[in-house]
Amino acid sequence: MNYLAPITLIAALLTSLMFFIPTSASALALGNQPEIIKEHGNDPQAMDVIIPDDISEDLLFSDAPELQVLTEDTLTPLEFISLQHINFNHDSYVLSQEAVVILDSAAKYYFQNDTMINRILIDGHTSDIANDDYNYQLSDRRAYAVWDYLASQGVDIERMMVAGKGEISPTDENWTRSGRNRNRRVEVQIIKRAAK
Hints:
This protein has about 200 residues and is an alpha+beta fold. The chain folds into 2 domains: about 5-60, no CATH class; about 80-195, CATH 3.30.1330.60. The protein is about 35% helix and about 20% strand. It is built from 6 helices and 7 strands, in the order H-H-E-E-H-E-E-H-E-H-E-H-E. It has helices at about 5-15, 25-30, 55-60, 95-110, 130-150, 175-185, and strands spanning about 35-40, 45-50, 80, 85, 115-125, 160-165, 185-195. The protein is elongated and about 45 Å long. The termini are far apart.
């Protein structure tokens, strides 16, 4: 049995990792920042952070705020409220009269609960007709049509987050006309602090 093979492999891995670790604190200070954070899959919460031995904690954390210990008393539960889907005609981002009625009621709800609302998520979607790039642009335009209308009604633009998701999240099948019609939509979700 060859005992040198695993040792050689480990040495090669350690050598390749050295390229991602800065040799001094000046590398960070001068803006030549190496890639020290590696994401795992699609979960930005799960990360490996490599901190070289020659960087002091004072340099890394000097401007960091003090950590607050979270308990059940300090955590505020959130409610996620989904509006009725706002549908669009084929290849269009013009709001229908039905969409305006839904958004007017959303704006009214916002003003009634203004101090409790953290975020309003606005996600645009399309059917799978046309190519990916076009569908992403169209879904952006649909989402921003909703954003623009809510902003015109006085909803705080700092609380609204917009995303165009193209055709990647269908709510129905794309091989029927009725399914495609339901996929041409904007979803609005209100994130609100729950009453204690």
